[in-house]
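This section describes the prediction task in plain terms. A model, or a person checking by hand, is given the sequence of a single protein chain and must write out its three-dimensional structure as a string of tokens. No templates, partner chains or ligands are provided. The sample shown here is typical of the held-out split.
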Amino acid sequence: MGVDVAGVVEAVGQNVTEFKPGEEVFGFRRGAFAEYVLGRERNFVTKPADLTFEQAAAIPGAAQTALQGLRDAGHVRSGQKVLINGASGGVGTFAVQIAKAFGADVTAVCSTRNVEMVRSLGADHVIDYSKENFTRSAQRYDLIFDAAGHRSVFAVRRVLAPNGILVVVGAPKGRLAPVARMLEALVLSRFVSQKLVPFLATNSKDDLLVLKDLIAAGKVTPVIDRTYPLSETPAAIRYLEEGHARGKVVITV
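The expected answer:
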């Protein structure tokens, strides 16, 4: 039904003090595939003037997942070697940029057609998964942010430093696959020195403001693969479910 939204405030309730009609905002709201949405003040922030509505709508869920996963679950620090698996997707494109903003040395894993795009986002090293299995590398990483899930947790932890952190945010297609993969990480983490963290993001206005600052500083830019008019939402969902979108897919009104 859509969970991320950007638009112009049409009206406000009597207790709303932060926004007024005519202001441009972005944030969270279920049912965002619509001409109008009704949401709470705490779920929105003002849209930067130099961002399009499409760019703003691409930010909330994916960028917040990347930020919280790296910062809160992964404890990313400057100078760390960080690997982003699934670097060309909606979450991954933000993760590459946010990890760089924290000062990490970033290795990105993606397909051949996305290598140059991911490199343009600031990745220090790019691995084409169709040519190289990163889980067989001799390199070891302090933090792995797995937004793809095409490799098992057992395989991925082979390239994790002895005291490194693996943040599991993605999984193969299938309704139960994400849950199973998170359980795999939880169980395995009890028997190894590494920290294997299943991760789900939560909505946070404070983090929207953090992301807004990163964007204003030129450190993060939303990547949009395709836009579809509202009337073609089913086609947009079909394309997204193919699993090959580069960055975000956006519905326009």
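For orientation: The chain has a mean pLDDT of 91.
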